[in-house]
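Late entry, evening session. Most of the bench is empty. Finally got around to the prediction I had been postponing all week. Sequence below, unchanged from the version circulated by S.P.
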Amino acid sequence: MKIAILKENKNEYRVSLTPIDAKTLVASKHEVIITKNAGTASGYSDREYLDVGVKVVATNKEAIGNSNVVVKLSQPTNGELNEITPRQLLISLFNLPNNPKVLRGLLKNKITALGIEAFQENGTFTLLIPNEQIKGRFGALLGAYNLAKFHKNSLGKTFSPIAHNKERAHFTILNASYSGLEAARTILALGGDLTVLENDEHLAKQVKDDNHLITLAKLHHSKFEVIKADFTDLSKQVSITDVLINTNSLPGSLTSKRITERMISTMRAGSVFVDLAIDQGFGSDTEKQTTSFAKPSFLADGVIHFALENIPSLFANSITVAISTILTEKLFKVLSGENPMSIVKDHKILLESIMTYDGNLTNKIAADSLHLQYKTISSLLK
């Protein structure tokens, strides 16, 4: 199989394959092609790829034209979509509900697209877990860090008690998602008080009974509670929180906008709102646009907002190793020959990860979020 590893877009520092995993693929008779400087931001030079038998080409267009499988973590550009043929397999993190232009390009060009966000094993979104772990941990640290007076409008409050002051910061997490659970662990490890708002009884029970969380809360004498909240009005919960963290409980779906401007206005001036679901859409009425790594926050109703897209990219080397390992073990090693779809058909997990095929949307989560019709991949292949 000829596998193309494309250079990513601006503000995407990850790459989808490490030199060490590339070496494994080359030894297995795969041909690996990578665009020049694709791994530089993750800490891997072109020389490292060349030394293990990878072919380095000048442009993404050239890489696409010489491959059967095209891999890119950031959403493909319109130009790249126009270069990919229906006989190739495109692997990416699409976030289709928040990127309708990408969906139109996939359908127009009849591209077979395998979504990183759709890859599931026994109900676990394997390829998303490393990204969500980073988002949750960093989101909690971001909230705690920005209670300090680095921002002139901040509260200037510490997250855990100090001598002669037993007050600690109160954190509230919306949704017991992958990133929500990681944020919860980090918050309790820091010694903060924590409330998790979750309406799904199964997810709520999982978090409430999590031994790691229970142990951390006991260790630091922190308040820890899981509440079934009325998402039509969160004012009571958010008005007592110092850091509000929004997450998305269903990977690949459009973010539910549950936080109104009125709710934000009940928060104490100088408190922090971190939206970890921003890659899949705005979670609050107070968010008009995403923030950037260069200017990560803005002030609205006295509350410091973080709406940072693609947080995992800030930890490019660590995430690259994790994603490359999973892709190599679970996907690349399975592929062989020149027709990737003929291989995918024989692997149920891969087949169910296909998001578009032959001009059809085949992913139910994306279809439901966008209120579109979809066809199952199995029905299209009959």
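Two things to note before I forget:
The longest strand covers residues 31-35.
The radius of gyration is 22 Å.
Will write this up properly tomorrow.
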